[in-house]
Amino acid sequence: MWIKYYIINSSPVLFFTADHSPILTSMRTLTSLVCMVLVSLMITPLWAQEDSSGYEYSAWMQYRASETRYFDLLHTDLQVSFDWERQELIGLAVLELRPYFYAQEDVTLDAKAMEIKSVVLRGADGQSRALTYEYDDAELHVLLGRVYERTDTLMLAIEYIAKPNEWEAGGSEAITSDKGLYFINADGTDPNKPQQIWTQGETEASSIWFPTIDAPNERCTQQIAITVQNKYNTLSNGLMIDQQDHGDGTRTDTWRLEIPHAPYLFMMAVGEYAVIRDQWREMPLAYHVEKDYAEDAQAIFGHTPEMIELFSQLFGVDYPWPKYDQIIVRDFVSGAMENTTASVFMERAQVHKKELLDYNWDDYISHELSHQWFGDYVTCESWSNLTLNEGFASYAEYLWNEHKYGLDEADYNLLSDREVYFEEASDEPKELIRYYYEDQEDMFDSHSYNKGAAVIHMLRNYLGDDAFFLGIKEYLTTHALESVEIADLRVAFEKVCGEDLNWFFDQWFFFEGHPEIIVSQLYEQDTLTLTVQQVQGEESPIYKLPLFIDIWSEGKSQNYPVILEDEVESYQFYLPVEPDLVVFDSERQLLAEVTHAKSAEEYAFQMKHSKSYQSRQEAVEALFLIKDKKIQQSILTAALQDPFYAIQQSALDYMIAHEVKPKKYAELIDEASQNESSKVRSYALRYLAEDDFEEHRDKIQQSLDDPSYLVQSVALASWVENGETLTSAQLKAFSAEDNINILLAMSEYYNLQTDDASYDWYVGKFGHIDEEALYYLLQSYAEKLVDAPEARKAEAVKIYNDIAREHASYIARLSAFQGLLLMSDVEGVDQMLDEIKAEEKDQRLQAYYDQF
Q: What is the model's pTM?
């Protein structure tokens, strides 16, 4: 499962712009809005209690043990067809089970929101016997008629109708709905949306579309026969082993996976797709996209074979499944999902090649792919151990970026994710391994993902690459096709390196928080004294922290290994002259908030000599503290010439915010405006436009034709803001675009217009843009409607009301509700708002709506 977390401010109308982005450039913003945490929605427990170990937990929480295994589910055989009108699945499930250890005379299966037609025990002699059962709309309790031992195998055949819309679905920041089975545009009345069916099993929603034992520590083989109309493609786990045309416009596709995996990883998708074939070694790969994107699929997913090869080499285990498919679906409830052999991606991944000039989807793709090892091949035994799945998958993004795009890109993304974790931890610190939680969905947070990845990175740095990757191989081979807990990972690394690693795993996985460190230095009488204090709160331990300290003196650096183990430690170094620079944790691998005051001269030296991304970024970020103009110029000049785009962006961002005049930097700004990175070009253009539009008018006008949407959007926004007119061809072309950056720039243009076309443009966009673009455009249109004619307001009220009540995305519903708040002067809107509040079932929105 791929998610990212971002905090935004809470207010009646929310506007959000990405870091390092003139409008919306960052992949992290473009792909994570569904996961935003609304600060106003944070619910604090009314009371808490503490156990004997000092662990504090809410009174309604309970210890979350791994599921007790009364039965071993060996194989699942499904036959399914669909009633599109009723949005129901008609199914036959044949489950092969045996008692796990102790004798059993009944079995309880997870089966949510179903109509159970019959339960039959199929005997080895071919005879069948109807069984007595009880069903409470969530669990199917079957009486077996006699006692079965662990040497016995049972075959249960269950006829059922799955009714996902009758399940009172919940949701979380990570997975916005948990009803398991989704019919998209089921009646075919939406001309802007294809008809599709798809599933989403994690965490425990597979049991909404087939009866099973819905726990992560269960594992079975599977076969699914899917009957559909001939116009539809199907996809499921494993390989298609049979396809039968029934001669009546329908056919049945049978998919089989002969390697056992967890029920939450079962998947099924139905729709009209272009299927683009690829391969890794001799293994088949396929990319499933809507037909309009057939020519773009290779550009989106084309790095997959290289990723599989990289991970197979690094992990020491070749990709362990018979094939790998990737499919994009509409209205997906998360970013992406790692179903075994068939990952599902949200529709924002479905882009044309031009959009890939500004960002790619490699983080998503590498994350879900790595789950085929971490999560699918070796699976966390309980959701308490979720970071064994998600922490490794998040770290795989680092491994891919390091391999493909270099260390700066890998560090930039890892450090950005750390900051998101720090933000979450400042509000609600938690353990990585959590045995107390209210709901398993709560585990899908920036602790399990971002902190998990950062801890794995520290372990790699401590062990070294050879031991780290051999430890990964040991872990994967020892526990192949098994469920695991955190101790299994520790033991694997200990077996390789020979060291007891309890100290590392205890402090990082079982305590909340992270080190907060203050570093101070004093040089006198040929001696440098470095004092390091750990100042984190009492809930966190005093950490044992192996790290390196770099000391630069007379233009050369010396590297010193140290191990912090006490609350306060001092180190003394003999130096004949005062050092030029001291870099604490020179590898920049600690998951810690470090305060280390430095002089302006030290930051300038650090910018030029300390090569890590974090060191250079720190120097640029220190500019606002530096008063010396020559030192400022030194840092800015180095930053504008930096080979990494994010450093150049930061420098340009500082220059824009502080209105640094371009005379001394004119040549460097010109080079930046021609940089191969569209992100750098866009910032340079924004800088020039804000400095002096008239002087740079020709360059801005030329940039309206830049190959990058991002650069075009900056030029377009500046062009409009300065009262320039668009040609009819430009207006037509830009108005037709659905790229989010162009949409936002054009919304500024149309908000300055008063003709009918300016309103019609908005109305025409709402039906077919994705949830993120819709979120922003609804707010922008609400701004325009403040002074709109009454007829336009009345038209808009109906649109906003429909979206607020019916849209699949909670962020779209939120934005529509906020827009209606701004139109509360229109008759009937107050009543609408009350009805929307009463009908809303998403707890996050309920909490927000209750404020009004």
A: 0.92
